[in-house]
Amino acid sequence: MVDKKLIDILACPACKGDVFEDKGSIECKECGRQYPVVDDIPVMLVDEAKMPENKKNEENE
Amino acid sequence: MDNQNEQAHQSKIIDQFSLQAIPFTQVPGHFDAMQILIELSKVYIDDAVLDVACGPGMVACEFAKHANHVTGIDITPAMIEQAEKRQNDLHLKNLTWAVGDAISLPYNDNSFSLVLTRYSFHHLQSPNITLAEIIRVCRPGGRVMVADVSVDSDKSESYDSLEIMRDPSHTHALTHEEFAALFKNSGLLDCRQSAYGVDIELETQLRASFPNPGDESKLREMIISDIGINNIGINARREKEKVMYTVPIGVFIGLKDGSQ
């Protein structure tokens, strides 16, 4: 689990959207990017983020 | 700067600092002057601090002894691993860590009362972007502090040549004038500056460095041949049997406008 206080101030480095923790990753409420959490440390690098399929399509439109 | 170039530079930083993660903490000069930073920053018990490019957490852990909470962020996972180890060794509870890039900090606006970074700006390709990010995440009325190598303008080129050879992730050490202009144009108020030197013993530093193959002897030669000349601006000298030099560090502090 990532520290709750850290989640409260974290933002997506790609779009600065708010984020939440879901199933072991940090997800952006705006663009949907999912950032991995490794040993409870969030890896907030755009290159390491996964973009969900439905959001990929939205971005390409 | 194009994205590919930026990514190549990021890889260089991660490669270098993955190697340096442990040796960096063992160069005695890197722990010196911590008290200067504590005093200049006026860190106090209510502060929410962010340490940008925190490396192995030396500064973050020290500030955690004086602040309410410290967050450390670094692009190199191996550095964050060392930082967490340091936190545990020191039995400190009030720290959290993240892996992230100083070009786009993953924090909301106005999240911290004190944002600092030490020894990072000379690795950045766009220090103005990072400073803007630092200011964005700092609360109105909060403090921003940057400590980094700051050289005389006539020594800048020689110093950069030396450092790029020692550490290929080095980009450019800002001159005093460049640093002052960066802060002046940033919108920060009440900007002040201070300075100190980090004394380094050549061979200890070489053991903690990972230059390209064959460059170690060139580095040694560059520094030894600068003794008594000081073209590089690091006052290379012999003390007893050892070659010593002093890296000039500038500390720049400003307040984020609280009236907005």
Lay out the secondary structure.
The complex is a heterodimer of chains A (61) and B (260).
Chain A: H1 4-9, E1 19-22, E2 25-28, E3 34-38, E4 41-44, H2 53-60
Antiparallel strand pairs in A: 1-2, 2-3, 3-4
Chain B: H1 3-20, H2 34-41, E1 48-52, H3 58-64, E2 69-74, H4 77-89, E3 95-100, E4 112-118, H5 127-137, E5 138-149, H6 156-166, H7 176-184, E6 189-201, H8 202-207, H9 215-224, E7 237-239, E8 242-255
Parallel strand pairs in B: 1-2, 1-4, 2-3, 4-5
Antiparallel strand pairs in B: 5-8, 6-8, 7-8
Total of DSSP H or I helical runs spanning 4+ residues of chain B: 9
Structural class, from helix and strand content of chain B? alpha/beta
Total strands of chain A: 4
Based on CA inertia axes, which overall geometry of chain A fits? globular
At CATH level 3, the topology of chain A is N-terminal domain of TfIIb
Put simply, the count of helices of chain A is 2
Structural class computed from helices and strand pairing of chain A: alpha+beta
Percent of residues in helices of chain B: 25-40%
Overall number of strands of chain B: 8
β-sheet strand percentage of chain B:
25-35%
What is the CATH architecture annotation of chain A? Single Sheet
Provide the number of structural domains of chain A.
1
Low-confidence stretches of chain A: none
CATH class of the domain at 3-149 and 168-196 and 251-255 in chain B: Alpha Beta
> Strand-residue fraction of chain A?
25-35%
- CATH class of chain A reads Mainly Beta
